[in-house]
């Protein structure tokens, strides 16, 4: 019998979707959030237990979990609030999964929390949703097909058909302002979000570069890799000018007073969880992820295309699958790991398919 699953942030937009996805899988998680009224109402609706916890009072988050439990958190923006849940899991000896897509926090998890988690025998899985499990899966499948001759992998995300939740908007604003990274020249380098615009052959779209977890995880799977490119498709004629805009913003926000002002504006305009796409909008949404592996001379060695549901539906289902798999002892290793290393390529492919993401 594994540890129990605790879902922190259950009353937020992504949190509630994840709670319902867990119940759909037969899990009985403890639901936790800061609003007693809202979390007890949701727990009552789903026939679950409720707990009260608030990131402004870290001790309440720590009290949610014990050794061997699985803490799933959807409370963001993670650069601002994510450390509270991560620290709580590590202090308790609990396993940890989150829904973040924020590069600065992802890097912190790997570089700051990874060794602590390994020493404690805990598994830490950051960015375990649409950001950035699909690219990890597509990239790993392409690299497996290409073999050791591959030195570059390019991944393009193309979500379509839905808007974003208030929490996602707040996280996106923080990600633009925070430091990011890319794996280039055989090592991880600092690189701002949106520094490059690239096209993926056959996609018909341009994409902006982002600091997905793939930069940290795929090189561990393929030692021959020298470059990882992660892109998010962006339409419109102005996309080619976005690297200049993000570059100017990055320079301006190096001035402490301007950075503080930008943070303040973002917090006022993007207050956090304020709802998101309706069920009908999610049902009409879809996503495609393309990964290509290339040789040093530029030859394409492999191409993998995944098709799936909207990002919110996938995130909820994937978090539910991952939490249940960890609780049941179906994950390997400890420390901060990518999804392929934690579950193996075959199991992750099957898990993603259960969440609606399949190889074309």
Describe the structure.
The protein is α/β, with parallel strands linked by helices and 360 residues long. It has two domains: 5-130 and 312-359, NAD(P)-binding Rossmann-like Domain (Rossmann fold); 133-310, Dihydrodipicolinate Reductase, domain 2 (2-Layer Sandwich). Helices cover 44% and strands 21% of the residues. Strands 7, 8, 9, 10, 11, 12, 13, 14 and 16 form a nine-stranded mixed sheet that branches. Strands 3-2-1-4-5-6-15 form a seven-stranded parallel sheet, with helices on both faces. A hairpin with a 5-residue loop joins strand 13 (286-294) and strand 14. Helix 1 (13-24) packs across helix 12 and helix 4 runs parallel beside helix 5 (103-120). The model has no long low-confidence stretch (mean pLDDT 89).
Element layout with pairings:
Layout: E1 5-8, H1 13-24, E2 30-33, H2 36-46, E3 50-52, H3 58-62, E4 70-73, H4 78-92, E5 95-98, H5 103-120, E6 123-125, H6 133-146, E7 152-160, H7 166-177, E8 181-184, E9 187-190, E10 197-199, E11 206-209, H8 214-221, E12 227-234, H9 242-252, H10 256-269, H11 279-284, E13 286-294, E14 300-308, H12 311-327, E15 335-336, H13 339-343, H14 345-354, E16 358-359
Parallel strand pairs: 1-2, 1-4, 2-3, 4-5, 5-6, 6-15, 7-12
Antiparallel strand pairs: 7-13, 8-9, 8-12, 10-11, 11-12, 13-14, 14-16
Helix pairs in contact: 1-12, 4-5, 6-8, 6-14, 7-10
């Amino acid at each position: 019998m594994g540890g129990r699953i605790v879902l922190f942030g259950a009353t937020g937009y992504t949190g509630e979707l994840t709670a319902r996805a867990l119940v759909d899988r037969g899990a009985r998680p403890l639901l936790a959030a800061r609003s007693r009224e809202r979390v007890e109402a949701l727990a009552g609706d789903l026939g679950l237990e409720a707990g009260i916890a608030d990131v402004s009072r870290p001790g309440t988050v720590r009290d949610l979990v014990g050794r061997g439990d699985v803490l799933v958190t959807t409370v963001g923006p993670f650069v601002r609030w994510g450390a509270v849940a991560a620290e709580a899991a590590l202090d308790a000896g609990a396993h940890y999964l989150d829904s973040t897509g924020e590069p600065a926090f992802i890097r912190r998890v790997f570089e700051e929390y990874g060794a602590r988690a390994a020493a404690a025998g805990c598994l830490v899985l950051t960015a375990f949703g649409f950001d950035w499990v699909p690219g990890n899966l597509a990239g790993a499948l392409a690299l497996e097909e290409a073999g050791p001759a591959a030195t570059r992998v390019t991944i393009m995300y193309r979500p379509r058909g839905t808007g974003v939740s208030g929490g996602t908007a707040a996280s996106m604003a923080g990600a633009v302002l925070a430091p990011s990274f890319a794996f280039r020249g055989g090592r991880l380098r600092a690189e701002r979000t949106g520094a490059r615009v690239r096209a993926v052959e056959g996609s018909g779209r341009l994409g902006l570069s982002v600091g997905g977890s793939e930069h940290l995880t795929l090189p561990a799977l393929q030692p021959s890799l020298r470059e990882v490119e992660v892109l998010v498709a962006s339409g419109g004629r102005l996309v080619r000018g976005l690297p200049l805009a993000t570059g100017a913003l990055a320079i301006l926000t190096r001035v402490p007073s301007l950075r503080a002002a930008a943070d303040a504006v973002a917090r006022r305009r993007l207050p956090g969880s304020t709802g998101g796409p309706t069920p009908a909008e999610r049902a009409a949404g879809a996503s495609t992820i393309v990964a290509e592996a290339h040789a040093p001379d530029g030859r394409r060695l492999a191409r993998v295309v995944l098709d799936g549901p909207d990002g919110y539906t996938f995130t909820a289902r994937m978090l539910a699958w991952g939490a249940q798999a960890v609780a049941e002892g179906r994950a390997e290793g400890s420390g901060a790991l990518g999804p392929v290393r934690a579950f193996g390529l075959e199991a992750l492919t099957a898990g993603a398919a259960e969440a609606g993401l399949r190889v074309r």
